[in-house]
């Protein structure tokens, strides 16, 4: 089958009307459908990781944040590779092969979650493989940029990126629904612990019984449970009791601290403790789920799209070696565009990955704690929708003004999160505002993603091959967003239970990126109005 087109002249009105338009829109449709599954499989681990403790996997809080962060790390490196392979192999080969590669994490994770003895390193490798889905963006989007004339680039890129971004919401929306469906394998028992009911169990049990149950645990397990207690509280109890006996320390803890320590332990361990204290209790909730279905359901769609890509896609004859493509790094605007896109897409992807675990660990201790997966998909959904909608706006008014507005929106959101104590909460009353602010930030990231991808082809209008390369490169660096957000947020929560420091850092970066965008691309008389 022929891969390369004989010629491609999208700026030629006659060629576009008679030949180009049909091919371009067909290519956009196929690659966008594939990109949806790319984003979904990329963020698959972020929703599965939330469920792992309840299934009995003995992973720590830090390890769970690592599993959510690793796909972002992998995607960043893989996007760098994708940035340069499009002019070498062409759209048809890149898209078809990239779609098939996503079967590795999908099938691998499906089998890994069925056995609670699967070691952490296996999950880490599979999390890295999820990066295959994140890497695609840096070849799919430059491909779309090449297929369309300048007047439609903003619209086409906005449609592809926006609809592709829906894959994040798809993963987070479908997962809770598909858990009750058997695709392959037996069900698993998922255990959750009700914090308020835990407090009642402890209140109704004697100190002697609590000491007996706690003393029967392994020393390492006792330490892990006590590590869930805030350090000032633990230090004061140790000082009052004047003992190193962990069972004595545990029973001397305040009721609220004691219940939180158990509720924050691995759910299977917490269930064992609570059932020993009171066999008939409502604090332990068990439910049968098919966790493997959250991964396996992608398989058939990936196989179909790989076949469609191979048989229906063509490649534009714009071949260049890797060495020739390196010329983008000599241009200062490559680096400025990288900074602005890290602010927009890096924030979108970073919040998408970290949002579920932020809900779990910031608000999960309170009575009537929210289910992270009930809220998680709304953010990516809003960010994806605004990216599509503002792709059309960017074609009308330019992208630079939208990027500036995005920077201001992200800055304002971070300020509210910190000053209102929303990322160091003291009650569930703060949760609605927390969700509202995060969703607003998602909205602005979508606006900025549409704006930046309208800007890049204009800033590099003298060389469309370079423009495509810059789109791939900036997307590669911004793909590190999930890794950066998840690790830094996880470190903050582990260290002090809040995320204030991270969002202060985000404020500083938003100011820097917005200033660069305004000075070079937005202000009157700027160097590259776009």
Automatic annotation (TrEMBL):
Q: Where in the cell is it found?
A: Membrane
Topology in the membrane?
Multi-pass membrane protein
Molecular function GO labels: nitrate transmembrane transporter activity
Q: Which UniProt keywords apply?
A: Membrane, Transmembrane, Transmembrane helix
Q: Which GO terms describe its cellular component?
A: membrane
SUPFAM superfamilies for the chain? MFS general substrate transporter, MgtE N-terminal domain-like
Question: Gene3D superfamilies, alphabetically?
Answer: MFS general substrate transporter like domains
Q: Transmembrane residues, as ranges?
A: 23-44, 64-82, 94-114, 120-141, 162-184, 295-313, 334-355, 375-393, 400-419, 431-450, 470-490, 502-521
PANTHER family in the cross-refs:
HIGH-AFFINITY NITRATE TRANSPORTER 2.3 (PTHR23515)
What is this protein's name? MFS transporter
Organism placement in taxonomy? Bacteria, Pseudomonadati, Bacteroidota, Flavobacteriia, Flavobacteriales
